[in-house]
Amino acid sequence: MQFVRNILYSLKKYSYLLNQLVSRDFKVKYKRSILGIGWSLLYPLLMTAVMAVVFKNVFRFTTPGVSFIAYLMTGLTYFNYFSEASNLAMSSVVANFSLLNKVYIPKYIFPLSKCLFVGINFLITLIPLYAVILLTGTGLNIYHLLLPYSWVCLFMFTLGMSFLLSTIAVFMRDMFYIYGIVITLWTYLTPIMYDIAIIDKAWIVSLMKLNPMYNIINFERMIVLYHQMPSGASWLACFLSGAVVLVLGAVVFKKNQDKFIYYM
Does the structure show a pLDDT above 70 at 148? Predict the structure, then answer.
């Protein structure tokens, strides 16, 4: 696809700009923060602790055969990356209108930079995730070497959604408020804090399995929690969850990017 080839070419040509954008985001996020990057280690642990208390002790959710803490954190780590990156990317084009008016910059650089910036934080959060995996006795296995595949699929899905959201936000600023509701609903419709097996209606389960985040997180959990080689169907579902949305987002963004200037 020509647009994808253009992106790869621009990544090389505008690599310095991309580095500057990611670096700027880091400086802004941790400016005047006492713990600094330490929050990337503490936040997932604190969120997991709070949600574990609520859903395990109040709602009595269980995950037979695996640690509930590990189950919860594997889902939170992936979903938090998607949620944060897509939220930041959604406003990335609008927030840089002044820069786009002055010099030519490929517009997709902005949502891409947000996904990369949050992606670095995501890699840092793998440290507390693996600490939980070890401390809960979940253990490691050879299949963990396959996890980068799920990271790539997660990145593709998030980038595709970022292209879609940043495009919509240019034409409809209400999207900033609507997406907050959407992402909250999406969180509960993704089996992060509960096992999909507790749902006794087959048609609801079938619908939930169409959720791209379910397919990506399920691929991860099969490796991390259940120590299994994912099935061929899981490999395909994980890949399509990322690739289809990435292509769709790239096409929508490309077709509309020349109209952005009229809405600045």
Answer: yes
Can you give the residue ranges of every domain in the chain? Answer: 2-263
Query: pLDDT for 9-27, tens place per residue?
Result: 767 777 888 888 888 888 7
Would you say 22 and 117 are in contact if contact means Cβ atoms under 8 Å apart? yes
Does the predicted TM-score (pTM) go above 0.90?
A: yes
